[in-house]
Write a structure and sequence with these properties.
Elements: E1 6-7, H1 9-18, H2 25-32, E2 45-46, E3 53-56, H3 57-73
Antiparallel strand pairs: 1-3, 2-3
Length: 79
């Protein structure tokens, strides 16, 4: 099993940019901050040592892959 690799907000934004998902700094921060119910759009967590928001790199990529698969599975093909 591969060890987790945690990235911060800026690294997450760069990673998503590499796969064609361009977000500005404000957009990635909004996805990481909790809403009124305390839920985040993406599973960022506060690093217990430095207090910065972090996310597992593979988890972030998996979320986008899963959304793509869901979209493909909901497609209807008409010939």
């Amino acid at each position: 099993m591969k060890a987790p690799f945690y990235i911060d907000l800026e690294d997450a934004r760069t990673l998503l940019g590499e796969i064609g998902i361009e977000l500005n700094e404000r957009q990635i921060k909004r996805a990481a901050e909790p809403d009124a119910n305390g839920n985040r759009k993406l599973p960022f967590f506060r690093d217990p040592i430095n207090g910065r928001l972090k996310i597992n790199r593979d988890t972030l990529l998996k979320i986008y892959r899963n959304e793509e698969i869901k979209a493909e599975n909901s497609m209807t093909f008409e010939l």
